[in-house]
Amino acid sequence: MIESLETVRRLLDQCSDDDRASLFTYLKARLPRHPLEEEWGVDAEVILSAISRSSDLTKRGVRGIIAEAIFERHVLPHLTEWDTVRFVDDRAYDFLLRSKVHSANEVRIQVKLQRMKKQQAMWASEARRYYPKEMYVVEVQKTRGGIDLQTNEDTRPYRFGEFDILAVNMHPSTKDWHNFLFALSNWLIPRSPNAALIEIFQPVSVSASACWTDRLETCLEWLATGEQKRILNIAPELLQRRVRGKDPSE
């Protein structure tokens, strides 16, 4: 069988692009379809074509769920001491881990894609003038907004305590979908004037640092220690200036 495959590969190398395209169509008809192709009744090429001609907002959403899929396939399998808990309802986090040692120990992870601007990785200083120029930025808020009828508050911002770890996919800057940086949610910058909310734009290190790690295992260790810090110390007067509408980067 291996020799036969090698022969096929050699023959394919000798084919023209049109011949290979015809063979590809032939093989597709004889291979199982992806479940989404079956559900929607269209080929993968049609789905990709539809995404290609969609708006930037739609593409941003698709890229976001790609980041989640990469996280599930290539990051979670390396965790030997944790199980992934499946759920189908809408929650403030994307993944739930449960310790194999202490079943009561659970960790909630929110996955976000590094923010882009004009098809390029966005720098932190483009989001907030007082953020460091050498840091990138991630947008940390829910996709859909709304108003809490009891408190009259905007429900789009995340609240501290809704998830434990922020995982940022760094593909926009690294061009590598497998590149993630992780930080603890309680280390994120609070939103002013309501410090119970997480600031929408969070500065992200270019690479691993004292507050951002490229290993989920390290972030889980940070969580276990209970250490308190901020990914960036921001002077209160700067936050207040933004609230009063005097921040030109807003």
Q: What's the structural domain tally?
A: 2
User: What fraction, in percent, of the residue positions are helical?
Assistant: 25-40%
Radius of gyration: 22 Å
- Topology as H/E string? HHHHHEEEEEHEEHEEHH
Strand line-up of the largest beta sheet = 1-2-3-7-8
Q: Strand-residue fraction?
A: 15-25%
Characterization of the model:
This protein is α+β, with helices and mostly antiparallel strands and about 250 residues long. Helix content is about 35%, strand content about 15%. It has two domains: about 1-25; about 55-245, no CATH class. It has helices at about 1-15, 15-30, 35-40, 45-50, 55-75, 125, 170-175, 215-225, 235-245; strands at about 80-85, 95-100, 105-115, 115, 120, 135-140, 165-170, 180-185, 200-205. The chain has a five-stranded mixed β-sheet with strand order 1-2-3-7-8.
Give a quick precis of the structure:
By secondary structure, this protein is α+β, with helices and mostly antiparallel strands. The protein folds into two domains: 27 residues; 188 residues, no CATH class. Helices cover 34% and strands 16% of the residues.
